[in-house]
Amino acid sequence: MILVLSLAYTLMAFAYFYSYKAGYSLLRYMFKRKNINVYLSVEIVFLILTSYIVFTNQPLNWIIAILMLLHASGIIWLISNPAGFYEVLEESFAMDENISEISVVAMLLISAMLVLFSRFFF
Questions:
Q1: Around Cβ 61, how many Cβ atoms within 10 Å?
Q2: Which residues neighbour 30 within 8 Å (Cβ) at sequence distance 6 or greater?
Q3: What is the DSSP code (8-state) at residue 32?
């Protein structure tokens, strides 16, 4: 299951990067206010995968537990305060769109590597 989670992070990073290089930003599409359901669906899928690993396979895997808490906090923040969530996103994209795109791809790839390496530690 850890391999599935790592593959999901890697595929998501590849999709963001490929769409960015092709001139269409999947990240910007996901973060539009009208696409809130798409973004929540993706976050819920990652929350389910991480929760399944933590609650059934490896309860002491704190790396995946932290990722689970980050996905849960993102969902709660988006549901409880969507205006604040989108304000932070707009500010980050206003500074430099390229850095935002690349940093999200890098963060997803780092998450995938951490998930894979957590398999050896726990």
A1: 20
A2: 38, 39, 42
A3: S
Classify the C-alpha dihedral 58-59-62-66 as positive or negative: positive
In the chain, the number of structural domains is 1
**Residues of the chain below pLDDT 50:** none
Task: Tell me how crowded residue 115 is: count the other CB atoms within 10 A of its CB.
Answer: 25
* E strand residue ranges, the chain: none
Closest CA to 104 of 30, 52, 5, 23: 30
Nearest to 115 by CA among 4, 24, 14, 35: 4
Please name the amino acid found at residue 1: M
Is the separation of the CB atoms in 101 and 16 below 8 Å? yes
Q: Which of 68, 11, 14, 13 is nearest to 43 (CA)?
A: 68
> Which residue range is the domain that position 50 belongs to?
2-121
What tokens appear for 107 in the block? 């963060």
pTM for the model stands at: 0.89
DSSP 8-state symbol, 71: H
